[in-house]
Amino acid sequence: MSRFVIVHGGFGGGWEWTPVAHLLREWGHVVFTPTLTGMGERIHLGPDIGLGTHVEDVVGVLEFENLHDVVLCGASYGGMAITGAADRVPIRIRMLIYVDALIPVDGQSAADLLPEGFVAMLRVAADERGNGWVSIPEGILPPAGLIPEQDWARYIANLRDQPVATFTEPVRLTGASARISRAFIRCTGGQLDVGGDPIEPMAARARAAGWLYRELNAPHDPHLFDPAGTAAILHELASTGSTDQQLSTSRWP
C-alpha cells in the first residue's frame, strides 16, 4: 500500500483524477487528489494567485493529513507545484512521479519551459500587476474522437481559465529534495500543439538523469483516455524495489 497525492495539470482540477484514484484505491492505496487554489471548483479564489500558493496547497495536504512516505505525482503543469513542495517537506516524500510534466530547476517558471506562443498569450492576459486569467489554448485541448463524445464534452466543459501568475512566478528551490527518488511517465499518443512540444525536453532530461522512465500510449491527458493504464503504471512505480529506486535518485539538473 502506498500513499499517493496526485496534483492535476493546467486549467483542470482534482476532479480529473477521480477515475484513476478509484482504481488505485481498489489496489489498497490511499489517494488524495487536491484542487489547486484558483482552479477547478476553487476558481472563485483567483486570479491573484501564483505558483507559490500552489506549492503551499500541496504542502498543506501533506501536513494537515499528516502524510509520510508519500508518492507525490504531478501531471503537466502540476510538475511545477510538486517540485516546489518536495523541496519544502522532503522528509514526507518517498518518490516523485512526473506524468508528462514540467520539471523546473531553481528560478524557473512554467513560462520559461513553455513555447513562446504560449508565453505571448500570458503577456496579453496579464494586467499591470501581472495578474489576470489565461484561457486554455486550443492546441492543448484533449483530442476528440478517442473516447465517447459525451465523456469528452463533459471534460471540456469542466476546464477553466488559470491565473496568469501561476505560469510566470518562478519556483525557489534549495536542493533539499535532491535525494528523493524520481520517475517520469511519457505519454506517446500525441504531442501538445502550443508552438512546440514542451514535454519532450523534460522527458529527455529525465532519461539523461537516470530516473525511472515509463511510456504510456495515450495523449497528454492519460487519466482521461486511459485511466486503467495510468493507474497501473503509478501502481507499478510505487511498488518498485529499492534497487531501482536508488538508480532513480535525482541527479537534476
Structure description:
- This protein is of the alpha/beta class and 253 residues long.
- The protein is built from 11 helices and 8 strands.
- It has one domain: Rossmann fold (3-Layer(aba) Sandwich).
- 37% of the residues lie in helices and 15% in strands.
- The strands form 2 sheets. It has a 6-stranded parallel sheet with strand order 2-1-3-4-7-8, with helices on both faces. A two-stranded antiparallel sheet has the order 5-6.
- It is globular, with a radius of gyration of 17 Å.
- Residues 241-252 have low confidence and may be disordered.
Task: Please state the structural category.
Answer: alpha/beta
Number of strands: 8
Largest sheet: 6 strands, parallel
Pattern of helices and strands: EHEHEHEHHEHEHEHEHHH
Mean pLDDT across residues: 93
Helix and strand topology:
Blueprint: E1 3-7, H1 18-26, E2 30-32, H2 51-64, E3 70-75, H3 78-88, E4 93-99, H4 110-113, H5 116-125, E5 133-134, H6 149-158, E6 162-163, H7 165-168, E7 181-187, H8 199-208, E8 212-216, H9 222-225, H10 227-238, H11 242-247
Parallel strand pairs: 1-2, 1-3, 3-4, 4-7, 7-8
Antiparallel strand pairs: 5-6
Helix pairs in contact: 1-10, 2-3
Index terms:
253 residues; single chain; disordered C terminus; 11 helices; alpha/beta; Rossmann fold
Briefly, what is this?
With 253 residues, this protein is of the alpha/beta class. It has helices at 18-26, 51-64, 78-88, 110-113, 116-125, 149-158, 165-168, 199-208, 222-225, 227-238, 242-247; strands at residues 3-7, 30-32, 70-75, 93-99, 133-134, 162-163, 181-187, 212-216. The protein is built from 11 helices and 8 strands.
